[in-house]
Amino acid sequence: EAGVAQSPRYKIIEKRQSVAFWCNPISGHATLYWYQQILGQGPKLLIQFQNNGVVDDSQLPKDRFSAERLKGVDSTLKIQPAKLEDSAVYLCASSLPVGLFSGANVLTFGAGSRLTVL
Amino acid sequence: GNSVTQMEGPVTLSEEAFLTINCTYTATGYPSLFWYVQYPGEGLQLLLKATKADDKGSNKGFEATYRKETTSFHLEKGSVQVSDSAVYFCALSSGGYQKVTFGTGTKLQVIP
Predict the structure, then answer these.
(1) Measured distance CA(A3)–CA(A62) in Å, rounded
(2) How far apart are CA B101 and CA A11, in angstroms?
(3) What local confidence, expressed as pLDDT, does residue A102 receive?
């Protein structure tokens, strides 16, 4: 089966500019995640969608970050305006639907989009 | 909130040495526990998992046992290979929507 697709793989922008990342999950995976991975740190969850609804965005800096998942399939993460501290790899992942009785939540990750803010 | 603490790296071992990477967690309820691995130039991928106390996850010669009494999920391998060089992440999922929380990662380098 095709994996999680992300683009672009690399992006360099100047601070205060905007950037958008795109993700297409595995077919049939209702749950989609965006993680931020700063160099030397573990991935931090920014937002979790189930179908096209948001179930967790508690760590998303909403003054500058936004994400949408129209039609419950692919998703876009936007940063506007970017700051130096946004330099990171943005990971998209997907999984089967999750819930109280869904069992262990196994994520499949894309290759990531590396952002450098100058 | 939930959290995962891993031993800091990098860990450097000779080929065929025994590996242990420590992981402890804090979580409400009954989390599932995971080890993910990131090989150089590749994305994160699941290595193994355990869903309840005393479960042992295993894959590719790696093992980890879910220890509820010590809130630990240490990763072990009896004889590492150069190809095991990677960054290893301990993680847990819990809550109604099974939010996944990761540790900071431990880099393993295996030298011939």
Answers:
(1) 29
(2) 26
(3) 64
Q: A49, A107, A114: best mutation site toward chain B, by most B Cβ within 10 Å?
A: A107
Residues of A in contact with B93 (CB under 8 A): 104-105
Q: Please tell me if residue A97 touches chain B, with a CB cutoff of 8 Å.
A: no
Q: Which residues contact B1 (CB under 8 A, 6 or more apart)?
A: none
Q: Give the pLDDT confidence of B66-80 residue by residue, as tens digits.
A: 999 999 999 999 999
Look at A99 and B46 and tell me if their CB atoms are within 8 Å. Answer: no
Out of A3-17, A98-112, B39-53, B63-77, least confident range: A98-112
Instruction: Compute CA B15 distance to the chain's CA centroid, rounded to the nearest angstrom.
Output: 20
In this complex, the residue of B49, B99, B103 whose CB is nearest that of residue A106 is B49
What are the Cα distances from residue A58, in Å, to A85, B56, B76? 18, 32, 34
Q: Do A103 and B51 touch (CB under 8 A)?
A: yes
**A25 inside 8 A of chain B by CB:** no
| DSSP per position, A36-105 | EE-TTS--EEEEEEETTEEEE-TTS-TTTEEEE-GGGS-EEEEESS--GGG-EEEEEEEES---TTS---
More confident residue, B18 or B9: B18
Chain A nearest CA to B80, separation (Å): 23
Which backbone phi and psi does A4 adopt, to 5 degrees?
A: -80, 125
